[in-house]
Design goal:
2 strands, 6 helices, two-stranded antiparallel ribbon, mainly alpha, 5% strand
């Protein structure tokens, strides 16, 4: 079953607005700011483009990896839905490329923290956690440790991270969360 672009967009929007409220509350309390200093802006056209681009990448992945080897690609209705790892990796790729979240500075005298420049990367990681957590059906959700989360946000912002890296990272994390052995020879 293939999810539609419209549904992918709705999934992003359903996660983004509650996340923004929590993000703003955390930043405001950590840095003694208030809502009169800045506001987080969501560009819904770019969110839609994230959904479209993610859909295209997933289709391309399926076209290549799910080919039947004879006369090409299986019918769309015969393809499995992309797993959470692929949805997370490709969505992160497009959120960090298209940067649909922005900060509007309302108080030019306010000293705004670096956290606000990492807004898209932070949301992308949160969305990936939600997508993977939902598939794993974990009661407490799925989340990288704080240290690993900070490292991933840093890498997404300052390094050249591609979807292959993200696919590998989240597949290893997913496998570890399901109890699958991901490293041997440690015992």
């Amino acid at each position: 079953m293939t999810i539609s672009v419209r549904q992918r967009y709705k999934d992003l929007v359903a996660v983004i607005h509650p996340w923004i409220l929590k993000f703003e509350a955390d930043v405001n309390s950590d840095f003694d700011l208030d809502r009169s200093d800045y506001v987080v802006d969501v560009n819904h056209d770019l969110i839609y483009h994230v959904a479209v681009s993610t859909q295209i990448d997933i289709k391309r992945f399926k076209d290549f990896h799910l080919s039947d080897g004879k006369d090409g690609i299986p019918k769309v209705e015969d393809r499995p839905r992309a797993d959470a790892v692929k949805r997370a990796a490709y969505t992160i790729k497009w959120i960090t490329r298209l940067r649909p979240l922005g900060v509007v500075i309302l108080n030019k005298d306010a000293r705004l923290p670096i956290d606000l420049t990492l807004l898209n990367e932070s949301f992308a990681c949160h969305f990936a956690s939600v997508a993977i957590g939902a598939e794993l059906k974990l009661p407490s959700g799925f989340r990288l440790t704080d240290e690993r989360q900070r490292e991933l946000i840093y890498d997404l912002h300052y390094r050249n991270v591609n979807e292959d890296y993200l696919l590998a990272l989240f597949q290893i994390a997913f496998d570890a969360a399901t109890g699958e052995e991901v490293v041997t020879g440690l015992r």
